[in-house]
Amino acid sequence: MEIVLVTSLIIISTLVTILILITKIARKGNKNLPPGSYGWPIVGETLSLLRAGWNGTPEKFIRERVEKHGDVFKTGLLGDSIVVFSGVAGNKFLFGNEGKTVALWWPKSVNKLFGNCLITSSGEEAKWMRKMLHSFLSPDAFSRLYISIMDLVTRKHIESHWQGNQEVKVYNTIKLYTFELACRLFMSLEDPNHIKKLASHFNIFLKGIIQIPLNVPGTRFYSAMRAANAIRKDLHAITKQRRVDLELKTASPSQDLLSHLLVSSDEHGRFLTEAEIVNNILTLLFAGHDTSSVSITLVMKTLAEKPQVYQKVYDEHMDIAAAKGHEELLQWDDIQKMKYTWNVVSEVMRLTPPVIGAFREALVDFTYAGYTIPKGWKLYWSTVSTTKDEKYFPDPTEFDATRFEGAGPTPYSYVPFGGGPRMCLGKEFARMEILVFLHNVVKRFKWDLLIPDEKIEYDPMPTPVEGLPISLHPHNV
């Protein structure tokens, strides 16, 4: 037993030493790289980035290194050498050179969990998938198809989970709501037990996204991969049944995203494979509920903390409601009147972005800010590198929704949905989802925070550690 243990330790030590030597040799060949530190072998500075997020200050990781090295610096994250681009100029360069100098890239953990889908594809494949999804997720589609359904689902959710309760844990309840809505719109899935089962898998899945991809028992990534497999198995079964229903004409080709993807082809007659459909549905279920859940939760926290902001939001929504019949559902024109509310949401996302950044890969050797970026190197841009910079946002830690009036912030300084050709395809879906929910909840309630100083931590998205418990106070209507 001891011989086996000693032998194992020698092998592990040798492998680590070889990895360190290979890393050092590879890095010595590039003399004009940006300044910075790679951190520890293999893990790099990943733990420092995660620690900043757990403390609720992800911008600290960026800010400390920008102060030391400048707006462009190198680091090591998730097993890769990374160059971080900060500031407006960095955002503009990366967004403007998509498909030319740089291309979308994700760590191995993301690629393994999501499979071949819109967010992991690049080049012509990405353009094709985006085209296949766009007709379902475009503003025109929302104006014609989804606002009223969103409003109806939201009303039912509030009746079931909010009305009659004195206290609510906002984050968990909102996550269930946004997941219910995504399941309804994307797959016409309404069975609450089925939805809860899927949601429980997604909660595990989320925790493994930004992790070192060690697929061994006991790691978050291992649990996330098992959850992803369970989700895919379920989605494959739903997809196969929908094919049958479409053939029998008991389902409509236009009833939801799943039907749309099954019956749609491009101009050459090419269809998405079943695996691609499942992967894209999985991706949109994730994107369609997690980031919106965070945003709604943090807006509700802000409205409880700032009564004067709540009152202005309330007045805006009561004016909209007063112009409609009692049971009349929201329409596209109503959403366009929620200008102040969206400014409030935007300011909340500025102060606490739901997503802190994304990756690119250098397609060629190129020079930026006087430094050489080698082909194949990984690049990172961050939403938090500009949002609390006083050059772009005076008094950056203060809440001020008027920042988004008129022309709004400096271009490329506020990028919660990314930018360029890879801007988030679900941006309009998120806007509708957030505004429809806020309209319904503000009309019915005021609320107080039960834990006023509750900590927010990023893991990987910003969430209140206790779920934001509130006490509800129904309006006397």
Q: What labels describe this entry?
A:
477 residues; alpha+beta; Cytochrome p450; 3-stranded antiparallel sheet; 17 helices; 12 strands; 11% strand; disordered N terminus; Cyt_P450
Characterization of this structure:
By secondary structure, this protein is α+β, with helices and mostly antiparallel strands. The chain has 17 helices and 12 strands. The chain starts with a helix and ends with a strand.
Strand order of the largest sheet: 1-2-8-5-3
- Fill in the CATH topology of the domain at 123-355 and 416-474: Cytochrome p450
Helix content: 40-55%
**Structural class of the helix and strand makeup?**
alpha+beta
The low-confidence runs, each spanning 5 or more residues with pLDDT under 50, are 1-25
What is the CATH level 1 assignment of the domain at 123-355 and 416-474?
Mainly Alpha
Distance between the termini: 75 Å
Describe the biggest sheet?
Answer: 5 strands, mixed
Strand content: 5-15%
CATH superfamily caption of the domain at 123-355 and 416-474:
Cytochrome P450
Net shape: globular
SSE string, helices as H and strands as E: HHHEEHEHHHEHHHHHHHHHEEEEHEEEE
Using only CA atoms, what is the Rg? 23 Å
Under the CATH scheme, the architecture of the domain at 123-355 and 416-474 is Orthogonal Bundle
Number of strands: 12
* Helix count, DSSP H or I runs of 4 or more residues: 17
GO molecular function: heme binding; iron ion binding; monooxygenase activity; oxidoreductase activity, acting on paired donors, with incorporation or reduction of molecular oxygen
Family: Belongs to the cytochrome P450 family.
Subcellular location: Membrane
GO cellular component, one term: membrane
